[in-house]
Amino acid sequence: MSKTVIIYSFHTQKSKKVAEKVIEVFGKDDITAINAEELTAKDFEENSNFILSAPTWFDGELPNYWDEFVPELEEMDLKNKTFAVFGLGDQKGYPENFCDAIGILVGILENCGAKIIGKIPAEGYTFESSKAQRGDIFVGLPLDQENQGRLTNERVTKWVAQLKKEIK
Predict the structure, then answer these.
(1) Is the dihedral angle over the CA atoms 24, 43, 103, 115 positive or is it negative?
(2) Residue 149 sits in a domain of what CATH number?
(3) pLDDT in the model for residue 2
(4) Residue 138: φ, ψ to 5°
(5) Which residues contact 30 (CB under 8 A, 6 or more apart)?
(6) How far apart are the first and last CA of the chain?
(7) 168 pLDDT exceeds 90?
(8) Residue 126: which domain range?
(9) What is the phi/psi pair of residue 32, to 5°?
(10) What is the pLDDT of residue 1?
(11) pLDDT of 93-146, one tens digit each?
(12) 141 contact partners, CB below 8 Å, separation of at least 6
């Protein structure tokens, strides 16, 4: 298994905490952290396996650091690259766009030829709609620190175990 890169904002609180849990469970020697706010195309060119943090901001938007990088990302050929995406959302406060950022980012990655791993069943969540949901699955790991924070460690642990099996 080649080294995996995790990309998240080093300046956030909740996403950073989840990313650090992913790193801990994954194994610090097998993963490299990159600050999403300092991301370059070279980071994507030089690596093959990625875990991306995509918290949903406002009414279903990507965070600024991803939004600013999207034009460059959309021009990349991501064939032979593997991506898993996790994100934070609020099922009760924003039930109509729960974890939309996961779905938005995965859609961009798929359009660039990327392989998406880390899909999970959509059970155990209560919301109206989500761009991260396709049928009865999520295309990444949605987490709700506001309403289901007690489930985060277990969800991350299971998800990382799944990723390790899916990463080639």
Answers:
(1) negative
(2) 3.40.50.360
(3) 64
(4) -100, 145
(5) 1, 3, 4
(6) 6
(7) no
(8) 4-166
(9) -120, 130
(10) 46
(11) 999 999 999 999 999 999 999 999 999 999 999 999 999 999 999 999 999 999
(12) 84, 85, 86, 87, 102, 118, 120, 155, 156, 159
pLDDT in tens, 44-79: 999 999 999 999 999 999 999 999 999 999 999 999
Q: Report the amino acid identity of residue 34.
A: I
Number of domains within the chain: 1
Q: How far apart are CA 95 and CA 128, in angstroms?
A: 5
Give the separation between CA 18 and CA 41, rounded to whole angstroms: 24
Say which residue, 6 or 3, is predicted with more confidence: 6
**Tokens 């600024």 correspond to what residue?**
64
DSSP H helical segments within 9-148, as ranges? 14-26, 41-45, 64-74, 100-111
The reported pLDDT for the residue numbered 3 is 81
How far is residue 112's CA from residue 71's CA, in Å, rounded to a whole number?
Answer: 12
Q: What are phi and psi of 17, to 5 degrees?
A: -65, -45
In the block, residue with structure tokens 């934070």: 88
Return the structure tokens found at 118.
């880390």
Structure tokens at 65: 């650091």
